Amino acid sequence: RKRGGKNGVQLFDSNMVDIARTRLEIEQSIEQGLRSGWFTAHLQPIVSLADGRVAGFEALMRLDHPERGLLPPAEIIGVAEENGSIGKIGDCILSKSIASLAAISKLDGLADSYLAVNFSPLQFEPALPARLAALLLENGVTPARIVVEITEAVLMLDNPLVREVLDALSDLGCRIALDDFGTGYSSLSYLNRFPVDIVKVDQSFTRSLSSDQPDVRRKSRMLVEGIRTISHQMGCAVVAEGVETAEQWDILQAMDIEFAQGYLLSRPLPLEALLEKLDDFAPS
Ligand code: C2E
Ligand code: CA
Ligand code: CA
Ligand code: CA
After folding, report:
1. Who has greater pLDDT, 12 or 187?
2. Where are the alpha helices (DSSP H) in 40-159?
3. What are the EAL domain coordinates in residue numbering (predicted)?
4. CB-CB neighbours of 23 under 10 Å
5. Is the CB of 12 under 6 A from ligand 1?
6. Ligand 1: which residue has its CA nearest to atom 35?
7. What ipTM does this complex have?
8. pLDDT at site 283
9. What is the distance in A from the centroid of ligand 3 to the CA of 241?
């Protein structure tokens, strides 16, 4: 299909046709997914490094497509932000994951566990706090058990509306977590300017803690220790993301970091599988 020889002009790039087709497919999947209830929230435990107890869960969006299988957020979110469907998807994830938290709460030792939900900047609209409050009331979940996860991309907009909504969520009693911490341009200044309660150390740092290059290990240890110290001084708890090995767990534990999240503990799971797995974590 590609035309043009050595010096010829390429009339069109078949790759672009593929991209357009894929995008259209994703848009159709989103639209149909919203109509047919294909969107679900998988939940991944967040565990206390001090005693191994499950402290909370992060909701991670999946589109459960009957033919294409489970589509990860990376395929969906960009398109959903562009075509404006992210709001509806976000509401759907919010209501499903809050209902899941209510179910999890019935298990031993998990009555106070928290739910962390990811938000795109485009979901911050004035009506969000009231809608969230209503959902929580309906499900018998207190606002203190909700963590709103945002990335710098949200804060970078420096939009008065974003601040207003964040303040309202914070006033409602929800906590705010700054996701992927350390990967952006000016993470530190956001700790100062916004009501942040939790800092999530990006998984790239966790990975380099156990690098086989001594130099990388040493430097990333200093970085993570620096993030921890600053976070604690600002009154924030720290979650290390992407913990995959026992070695990483041990290093983070020795650093006095509060929480770990990653495949070592559990992959993100659908509610039923998670409820099953949670006995394995149950304090004996
Ligand atoms: P994130 O918020 O940083 O979420 C953590 C990602 O790391 C998740 O990918 C999770 O499955 C993955 N992960 C967890 N533990 C490990 C580990 O030990 N090793 C490795 N390699 N990966 C691990 P996922 O589910 O594909 O989500 C990707 C991103 O999509 C999320 O990154 C978040 O930014 C976004 N996202 C997910 N759900 C939602 C949602 O409901 N709304 C919005 N707006 N964004 C979402
Ligand atoms: Ca997150
Ligand atoms: Ca993250
Ligand atoms: Ca089990």
Report:
1. 187
2. 73-83, 86-104, 128-139, 152-156
3. 23-282
4. 14
5. no
6. 73
7. 0.97
8. 53
9. 6
